[in-house]
Amino acid sequence: MNLLHQGDQLAALEVVPANDTAAVAVVIPCWNAAPWIARAIQSVLDQDYAEVEVIVIDDGSTDASLEAVKAFGDRIRWSSGPNRGACAARNAGLEMAQADWVLFLDADDYLEPGFVSAALAAGGDLAVDMIVGASKRERPGGSVIIDAYPPGWGSEDILPRWLGGRYVQTGAIVWRAEYLKSIGGWNPKVRRSQDIELVLRALLLGARAQTVDAGYCVWIDHASPLRIGSQSGRDAIESELDFHEELLTLIGPSRPSLRLPMATRFHALAEQAYFRGYGDLGDSAMQRSRQLGFDGRVGPWRKRITTRLIGSKGYAGIRRAKAHLLSRLKAFRAR
């Protein structure tokens, strides 16, 4: 039975037959990623693990992405269809995969050599549903940030940290394919923070996880407006509020220790909504944050004093006005 979220399937044209011997499938969703997609694919082909296959789902690209994908010939499998979003593309790749394990690599990321073999060597024989590796962020200017957990941590260690904002990149996690299908795969209703939602949902539903030392999935912190994480419109914030409400139902009254981290997340979403001018969304998120026990005292002392005096909405208004003024000044100086 297909347990993936309804409406996920791409009207796809598959051109390479399944690799029945693959132990790991690497699914790469691709939408207008021509500058990066070849690097992502090659990084998987260069892995020293023999039983790995590459599945690329072109999600209605209008640039040269599909041509770059086709250039790899029968070394990869691919399909193409209309644009339905990254989660739908990932679910289509999950359905195509024949392997026991699956990794989802964003088209503008890449895997360091040896990542797959090291991850499976450390966690592949364990009774786990998620093997959690580490990621490396390469920022403009050349600085690097490592996102990682100590090796040997389990679900009970990861969940509160993930709730608190300690993440690794999508491509640093290897999933047991059958488990991922059993919880519905990726949620196509989520517009932003899609991997955050999936990991939280999986852990709250009882996924067995293990952190490993396997090298890095690397993502380049570029400023493309096409990035999912760059989306800050009303729909993106609203979908994030919606999935947090759904996660609350999984927490329930039996896990009181998780209520405050969730309250903090709602407070952060309220501040984002206020800053973007979506007052109703901000009010809703702030109300939920207070219901969960958050008192609003967060950040530097100046911010705490200001928000106590004029509220988070007023503080966000000041930030928005300041950002608008700085943008005007920058445009004026560029003339």
Instruction: Please outline the major beta sheet.
Output: 9 strands, mixed
CATH level 3 topology of the largest domain: Spore Coat Polysaccharide Biosynthesis Protein SpsA, Chain A
- Shape summary: globular
Q: What string gives the helices and strands in order?
A: EHEHEHEEHEEHEHHEHHHH
CATH superfamily of the largest domain: Spore Coat Polysaccharide Biosynthesis Protein SpsA, Chain A
Rounded to an integer, what's the Rg over CA atoms? Answer: 21 Å
**Percent of residues in β-strands:** 15-25%
Q: Would you identify the CATH architecture of the largest domain?
A: Alpha-Beta Complex
Helix and strand composition category: alpha/beta
What is the total domain count? 2
Kindly state the number of beta strands. Answer: 9
Which residue ranges are poorly predicted, with pLDDT under 50 across at least 5 consecutive positions? 6-18
Considering the chains and any ligands shown, give keywords for the structure.
335 residues; alpha/beta; Spore Coat Polysaccharide Biosynthesis Protein SpsA, Chain A; 2 domains; 11 helices; 43% helix; 17% strand; globular
In short:
The protein is an alpha/beta fold and 335 residues long.
Structure description:
It is a single chain. This protein has helices at residues 37-45, 65-70, 86-96, 115-123, 155-163, 177-182, 194-204, 234-251, 259-276, 279-291, 301-333; strands at 24-30, 52-59, 77-81, 101-104, 109-111, 130-138, 144-147, 173-176, 209-220. The protein is an alpha/beta fold. It has two domains: 24-227, Spore Coat Polysaccharide Biosynthesis Protein SpsA, Chain A, CATH 3.90.550.10; 232-333, no CATH class. Strands 1, 2, 3, 4, 5, 6, 7, 8 and 9 form a nine-stranded mixed sheet that branches. The radius of gyration is 21 Å and the shape is globular. The N and C termini lie far apart (61 Å).
